[in-house]
Amino acid sequence: MIRIAAVGDVHIDRDVLGRFRPALEELPDRADVLLLAGDLTRHGTEAEAKCVATEFGGLGVPVIAVLGNHDHHCDEVPGVLAALTDAGITVLEGDSTVVEVDGTRLGVAGVKGFGGGFAGRCASEFGEPEMKAFVRTTGTVAERLGAALRDLDCDVRVALTHYAPVPDTLAGEPLEIYPFLGSYLLGQAIDSAPTDLAVHGHAHHGTERGRTPGGVRVRNVAHPVIKQAYSVFNLARENVSPSPASGI
Amino acid sequence: MNDYTEAEVQRALAEDLGVAEQGITVIRSDAGLVLCGEVESPHRRDEIVRLVHDRFPGIEIAADIGVTRAAAPTEAEELA
């Protein structure tokens, strides 16, 4: 069994330093790995990322992250990435990593993701250049997520995103903003591989549990949703992964 | 207090770098505005109230904003 801890949307800055640490000190007793589902910082400064490194670094278990929209706001992504990686945090964007736990290989593929909406209520790559660029951005990152998931050589396969891959876990958010919270293209990418679990954040007013059309379990781990320092998911190695529903 | 003011408040909460909150719900009431949601620290709650007071003087504000708990989980979810 692999024990996966996860949280997103912690929005760390100096005023939050130390709030998570007592619970994080207990994490190695409860989980084998920690996933951070984006929006690690308040508005994406290198200084805030150093606070993230202080809070989430040196835990004694691997920490794997994707960035969120907040982490991009101040256009300091290179500095943010450097601060996180210097603290030993693995940051994924269209790639993957494998962690071995007691002989079981946990593979995590991650992207920030982007918006666009869900089946029947989504944006199309049509019209103005700005609209086409918006939808194309999501399509590109979803393709990278799908490829990274399919290329993984592992026993347990997890998708990590900031934006939501399904509408299920957005329940509680205003319907009008769903297209800004996620995209079905991310779900389609997740379903293109035998994924065991998909974890995302971003939707502060959403709900915890959902499934992709292909049957992959989805968990919204945004901190305001889970209302604890992190959630823990115990995944048995013998879990039967669903068959790929579709390719992209 | 009208739709435009409500939109301005929502955008100010997101776009002011001292606040940068997209998770606060702005609700119009008979008396003014109710701000609801959760933030990561008491300081941020205070900053939200201060921002709206400063930018929109004359609007009565009720803040119903909590600080998200950060305790260790009491149980794991078994995904068998």
Word description of this protein:
The complex is a heterodimer of chains A (248) and B (80). Chain A has 248 residues and is an alpha/beta fold. Chain A contains seven helices and 13 strands. Chain A has a six-stranded mixed sheet with strand order 5-6-9-10-12-11. In chain A, strands 4-3-2-1-13 form a five-stranded mixed sheet. The longest helix of chain A is centred in the middle third of the chain and has 23 residues, at 129-151. In chain A, 54% of the residues are buried. With 80 residues, chain B is of the alpha+beta class. Chain B has two helices and four strands; from the N terminus they run H-E-E-H-E-E. Chain B has a three-stranded mixed sheet with strand order 1-2-3, with helices on one face. In chain B, strand 1 (25-28) and strand 2 form a beta hairpin. The mean pLDDT of chain B is 92.
Concise structural overview:
The complex is a heterodimer of chains A (248) and B (80). With 248 residues, chain A is an alpha/beta fold.
Percent helix range of chain A: 25-40%
Span of the ends, CA to CA of chain A: 30 Å
Main-sheet strand order of chain A equals: 5-6-9-10-12-11
SS strand fraction of chain A: 15-25%
Shape of chain B: elongated
Q: Count up the helices of chain B.
A: 2
Number of helices of chain A: 7
Number of strands of chain B: 4
- Strand content of chain B is 25-35%
Order of helices and strands of chain B: HEEHEE
Give the overall shape of chain A, derived from the CA principal axes. Answer: globular
Mean pLDDT of chain B: 92
Task: Please give the share of residues in helix of chain B.
Answer: 25-40%
SSE-based structural type of chain B:
alpha+beta
What is the number of strand segments of chain A?
Answer: 13
